[in-house]
# Entry
Amino acid sequence: MHIFLTGDIQVGKSTLIRKALHEVPGIRLGGFRTVTIADVPGAIGAVYILSAAAAENESPGSDQRVGIRYGPGRGPECFPQVFDTRGVQLLRDAEQADLILMDEIGWMESNAAAFRSRVSELLDGTVPILGVVRKMGNAPLQETIRNHPAVRIVTVDVENRNSLAGPLAEWIRNSL
# Structure
C-alpha cells in the first residue's frame, strides 16, 4: 500500500513527512521532494525537484527548476522537460529503496509524459510510496494517484496534523 497526504497549502504535510521519517532512522529513501525558494525576481518563488535524500540546506541548480510561481496577474511557468529528465532520473532506481518519497504531485507535471509514466509504474510496484498529492485540481497524475487501488489518501488539517506523525512512522516501519 502507498500513502499520499493531501490538504490545504501550508497545513504541514511535508513537515509531517519529515517528522515521521525522523522516527524511522536508517531507511534508504528513493524518489524526490520539491522545495520552493524565493530566488527569482518578481516571483513568489521557484519550485525545484531534489533527491528525497538531499540535505535540507542543499542549494538546487537551475537544471532542477520545475516551475516558477508568480503573483496575481501572471500565471505560473512550468518546465515539464525538467520532470522528464531530472524527475525521471530521481525515480530511475527507486525500486532499490526501502521507501519512495514523492513530495509533491500537482499540476506542474501535466505535460511531462515520461515522468507521469514512471510514477504510474512505481504505483503498480511493491516498494511503498509516501507522497503528497495536491488537494485542488484534477491534473492527470493527481487523478491517477487518487484512483489507484493501492493508494490510501490521508487528509491533513490543523486539527489532526500533530497526531499523524506516530501512525505514519508506524506504517513506514510495518511497510519495510
